[in-house]
Q: What sequence folds into this?
């Protein structure tokens, strides 16, 4: 499946936006892990903004930046959201409340607990009625989202934005599922070349185990290993270098995605 | 879209275990709802509980996955000859060529709720026997189903609240059209837990009586649990007479509110229109609409507007949630299967518990079963976050 990349959004530890991160990802500047800077999107009304959790902020920030980069209208573009962990803070609060004698969950917290909360807030923020889905595939959540979004681009012949995010769990869940940092990224992909396209991806699902492509920089590779959706980093590095490359993304124990990245024009 | 064949499906919920039990309960107008006595829950509400679940333990090689949700999945997989049909498909296509796309809203969250009660009083640590990846993680369901069936192709969970297991049909259709797989195990499982019972209660959305969709006095949902699975395969050039087909999938977002549907039913209407467009059908081609019909004030009013605008007030419709309860992430697959049973048996299931249809609602809402030749059905599933999905199912020939 071939898709045309129009825009990228990125925020993570020491990765403050796609443009600011390109040299770090390409290996031409030194990477240093500093805490992820997430600002609340001004697309949401103030009342809604106060009610949202970090995953919504991550998704909106990465998504908005990618759509600006892509020069595409978010209101008419389908989306695929993917996350391994969803809103871990909300899960913790709910489970802690339910284990207490009171058991009174806040209604806002409950509706924010659904895995598709970022997708819901995104559609409200961008006034988009376009189809949207929300996926989870544990450690392979990025690969699953990429495959699904690419299939949608190829089959429906329409642009799709893949929005991936993960948030660390608080304790005690962190001990059983350590995720080291907050991370959000977006790829806006089109079915054909447009003036904003800067790379193509040829994506195939390969039913064989393979070693995933790693990051050269040890700090970035540690991030790749420690945040499920940061498994996208080798793909972003190939896009940042702007040269042809093949990236292998693990998809479960028995499969992988082979992504051939090529610059466009 | 290219129609896909559904030659095998299985179903379990509070109406019974297996298609025959569910169909006969619907025919006899027997509801599965009972006053809530789940776990330690103290709420004045009704639930649809799967009685057979108490006997189930997950297969020993998958012991790590043992939790209420995966037990319910296993129970469903073993019904209606489903696991055997998938086994035959595995021989035919190869394990790596069959995708697994599952819908769930809360996966095995009950396991985490219970583990939080057993946190170490000093360190706060979760008990050593708690298995995060195999039970709590949203992917746990698809992981379990894939391993249980011995499949190795692409797999993921769709978790978009109450539209989850309707949307899996769209994902599977795209994956098959893109050539990533030749067949797909689709379905959904959601099981009772404290999060949804107390959560919907906090929103004032749980009924104190068995839920009454489209009734004047409707006051909220009854939460249920259940599992459903279907096997999607490519169709022959000429599908056999009465072969069951997925004809269309339509998806949309409300872009309105996280937990309240669009008051004019805008997103619902878009999803239904997209599903008809994908099927290449007109509203008049639909013989019955299985409504989302949750029995909240807002859902039924919004859905009714959307249905009436698109279909007019003649198309027979009903919600089967009075019988099953609202199965949340498993509602889409459950109602898709109930729709296929209506086609197979030529009976439109009348809604239960509804005594006086709200005069503000104008759909042709069935309160009694009706014998009818049913060729094509539209099934609606709408969820939190304004996530909407409609399916068109039909018989070939």
A:
């Amino acid at each position: 499946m071939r898709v045309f990349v129009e825009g990228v959004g990125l925020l993570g530890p020491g990765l403050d936006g796609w443009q600011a991160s390109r040299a770090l990802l390409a290996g031409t500047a030194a990477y240093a892990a500093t805490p992820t800077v997430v600002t609340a999107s001004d697309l949401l009304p103030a009342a809604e903004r106060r009610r949202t959790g970090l995953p919504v902020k991550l998704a909106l920030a990465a998504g908005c930046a990618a759509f600006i980069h892509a020069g595409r209208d978010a209101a008419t573009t389908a989306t695929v959201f993917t996350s391994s962990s969803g809103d871990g803070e909300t899960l913790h609060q709910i489970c802690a409340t339910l284990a207490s004698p009171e058991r009174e969950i806040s209604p806002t917290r409950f509706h924010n607990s659904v895995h598709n909360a970022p997708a819901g807030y995104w559609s409200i923020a961008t006034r988009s009625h376009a189809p949207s889905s929300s996926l989870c595939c544990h450690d392979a959540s990025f690969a699953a989202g990429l495959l699904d979004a690419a299939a949608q681009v190829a089959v429906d012949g329409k642009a799709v934005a893949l929005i991936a995010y993960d948030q660390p769990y608080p304790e005690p869940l962190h001990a059983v599922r350590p995720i080291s940092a907050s991370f959000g990224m977006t790829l806006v992909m089109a079915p054909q070349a447009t003036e904003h396209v800067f790379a193509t991806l040829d994506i195939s699902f390969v039913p064989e185990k393979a070693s995933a492509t790693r990051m050269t920089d040890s700090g970035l590779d540690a991030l790749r290993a420690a945040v499920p959706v940061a498994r996208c980093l080798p793909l972003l590095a190939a896009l940042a270098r702007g040269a042809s490359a093949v990236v292998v993304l693990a998809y479960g124990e028995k499969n992988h995605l082979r992504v051939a990245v090529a610059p466009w024009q | 879209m290219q129609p896909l064949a559904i030659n095998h499906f299985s179903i379990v919920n509070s109406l019974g275990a297996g298609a025959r039990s569910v169909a006969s309960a619907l025919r006899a107008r027997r509801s599965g709802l009972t006053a809530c006595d789940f776990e330690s829950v103290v709420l004045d509400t009704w639930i649809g509980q799967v009685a057979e679940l108490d006997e189930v333990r997950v297969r020993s090689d998958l012991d790590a996955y043992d939790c209420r949700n995966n037990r319910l999945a296993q129970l469903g997989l073993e019904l209606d000859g489903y696991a055997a049909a998938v086994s035959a498909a595995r021989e035919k296509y190869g394990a790596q060529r069959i995708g697994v796309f599952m819908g769930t809203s809360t996966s095995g969250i009950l396991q985490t709720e219970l583990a939080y009660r057993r946190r170490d009083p000093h360190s706060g640590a979760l008990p050593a026997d708690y298995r995060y990846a195999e039970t709590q993680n949203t992917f746990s369901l698809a992981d379990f189903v894939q391993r249980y069936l011995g499949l190795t192709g692409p797999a993921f969970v769709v978790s978009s609240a109450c539209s989850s297991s309707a949307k899996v049909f769209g994902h599977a259709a795209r994956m098959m059209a893109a050539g990533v797989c030749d067949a797909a195990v689709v379905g959904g499982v959601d099981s009772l837990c404290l999060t949804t019972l107390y959560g919907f209660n906090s929103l004032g959305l749980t009924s104190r009586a068995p839920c009454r969709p489209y009734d004047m006095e409707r006051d909220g949902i009854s939460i249920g649990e259940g599992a459903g699975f279907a096997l999607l395969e490519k169709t022959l050039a000429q599908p056999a007479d009465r072969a069951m087909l997925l004809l269309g999938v339509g998806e949309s977002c409300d872009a309105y509110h996280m937990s309240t549907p669009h008051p004019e039913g805008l997103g619902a209407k878009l999803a239904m229109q997209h599903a008809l467009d994908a099927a290449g059908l007109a509203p008049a081609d639909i013989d019955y609409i299985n409504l989302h019909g949750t029995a909240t004030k807002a859902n039924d009013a919004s859905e009714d507007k959307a249905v009436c605008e698109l279909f007019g007030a003649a198309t027979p419709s009903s919600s089967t949630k009075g019988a099953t309860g609202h199965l949340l992430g498993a509602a889409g697959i459950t109602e898709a299967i109930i729709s296929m049973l209506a086609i197979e048996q030529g009976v439109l299931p009348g809604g239960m518990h509804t005594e006086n249809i709200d005069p503000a609602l104008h759909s042709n809402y069935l309160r009694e079963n009706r014998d009818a030749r049913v060729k094509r059905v539209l099934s609606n599933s709408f969820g939190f976050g304004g996530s909407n999905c409609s399916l068109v199912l039909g018989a070939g020939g």
